[in-house]
Amino acid sequence: MPTAMEIYKLLPKKNCGECKFPTCLAFAMQLANLKVALEACPYVSPEAKAALEESGAPPVRLVTFGAGESAAKTGDETQLFRHDKTFYHPTVLGLVLDCAQGLDKVRAGLDDVKGLVFERVGQQVRVDAVAVKQSVASADVFAEAAEAACSQALPVVLMSEDAKAMAGAAAKCKSRPLLYKATPANIDAMVEVAKSSGCPLVIGGAPNLDELGHLAEKAKKAGVQDIVLEPAASTAAELLQNMTTIRRAAIRKKHRPLGYPTIAVLGRSQSDQLRGALGVMKYSSIVLMDDLPREFVYPLMALRQNIFTDPQVPIQVKPGLYTVGEPTEKSPVMFTTNFSLTYFTVRADIEKSKMPAWLLVVDTEGQSVMTAFAAGKLTPESVAKAIETEKVKEKSKRNEIVIPGMVSRMSGKLNELTEMKVTVGSRESSGIPKMMRTLSQ
User: Fold this and answer.
1) Domain residues of the chain, as ranges?
2) What angle do CA 143, 145, 151 make, to 5 degrees?
């Protein structure tokens, strides 16, 4: 982002106040601190606007493909390391369907892709996109497969180096697919397809990163703004080196020719699996996979979730009174915090006991039991308030609450506030099944 003085030199210097600031210099200072939009100035010239938008753009361009709520967003990154802030727009994971297998296989594959979803720590984790590959199929079959894929609710990548076939397939898609790919041999024709269809374009096939940057600049000058880069990577080591170099050049040096999202396309070998994991970690925006084993795909999705979870914001569940099994008014009541990992661990251990129970989740701003207790976020008063808010005494007539063993010190005060019998439970969640059998006696 340019400095306030650099911005000020491009402003009209009218000091009209229509931007809600008394002077253009004051407005420039707010712009430099990203506290106001450039559109607030009604007199900024088109040339100045273009210059400021270019200099103020994120180092990695935001590229979106797909449509509606399911659209895939890639790029728009500003940090090299997650702990500096956080990573945005998790790596898009997609499966490749080859038209050479026939349209029926493609349609069956689309159903399989939609089924690749599971819940982890309260979040839905899924494969995000589907890629349709022309391979040896005719242009007509490719277009039909593209139309079938684009009718689904997933972002689509069209894979062909034949510009005519790509144009026909793109015309069948109304959901703005990603076009893969332009190479030194077909760059001019593929740029025309991308421009006419309004779709983002993958650029690859370059022998090195300098040539890849030159191709990206050529496409940009020709009118294609939404670009995704595919650096050459015959080995996992080369993928790691090139992806890291691109990221550093874009983030640290603001090197615009490489300031785009990246893509990695995998085969079926074990080395491809390694490349897939590396791509998620360092720093592929999109990873397209052939029909890899599900025992690899699911851990890869979990790895992505871990990396793109904001380290400064704990994953939380909604506070409230939850049922485990089918509890009755005679079932015990337990409480825990709304830190997702704690909640799901405690819930799983209650389920292991095969006994129904009420589980009260207290709002601790996403902190674990001991962290919240030490920070004053988990107190007898907060637990008593949750009991009252959730009308626990109306749901369970036992007039008893089981508290984690680690916070046994709050038992006396909690009893005084709620007039409920307070039972100190196990210190560790793993002891819950045994404790539940004791409660039932």
Assistant:
1) 4-56, 63-307, 320-439
2) 100
- Condensed to tens digits (0 to 9), the pLDDT of residues 101-133 reads 889 999 999 988 888 888 887 788 999 999 999
Asked if 407 and 425 touch (Cβ cutoff 8 Å), the reply is no
> Which is nearest to 233 in space by CA: 279, 285, 179, 184?
279
CA 387 – CA 360 distance, rounded (Å): 8
**Up-side HSE of residue 349: CA atoms within 13 Å toward CB?**
20
CA–CA distances in Å: residue 215 to residues 83, 137, 244, 249: 33, 28, 19, 16
Q: What is the pLDDT of residues 63-85, one digit of tens each?
A: 999 998 889 999 988 888 888 88
Q: Which of 303, 246, 248, 247 is nearest to 277 (CA)?
A: 303
CA distance 289 to 277: 11
Residue pair 280/149 in contact by the 8 Å Cβ criterion: no
Architecture of domain 4-56: Orthogonal Bundle (1.10)
Alpha helices in 335-431 (DSSP H): 340-352, 369-374, 380-389, 392-395, 411-418
φ and ψ at 149, to 5 degrees?
-65, -40
- Of 135, 171, 139, 155, whose CA–CA distance to 290 is shortest? 135
Query: Which fold would CATH assign to domain 63-307?
Result: TIM Barrel (3.20.20)
Please report, as a single letter, which amino acid is at residue 43. Y
- Taking only the tens place, the pLDDT of each residue in 319-337 is 999 999 999 999 999 999 9
Are the CB atoms for 388 and 319 separated by under 8 Å?
Answer: no
Q: Do 237 and 211 form a contact (C-beta atoms < 8 A)?
A: no
Hey, is 8 helix, strand or coil? helix
Residue 304 structure tokens: 């992505």
Class of the CATH domain delimited by 320-439: alpha beta
- Name the one residue in this structure whose structure tokens are 């569940």: 317
Q: Does this model's pTM top 0.70?
A: yes
Spatial separation of the C-alpha atoms in residues 221 and 104, rounded to whole Å: 41
End-to-end CA distance of the chain: 67
What is the number of other CB atoms lying within 10 angstroms of the CB of residue 412?
11
Three-state SS string across 79-110, please?
A: CCCHHHCCCCCCCEEEEEEEHHHCHHHHHHHH
**Chain-centroid distance, C-alpha 223:** 29
Q: How far apart are CA 350 and CA 356, in angstroms?
A: 8
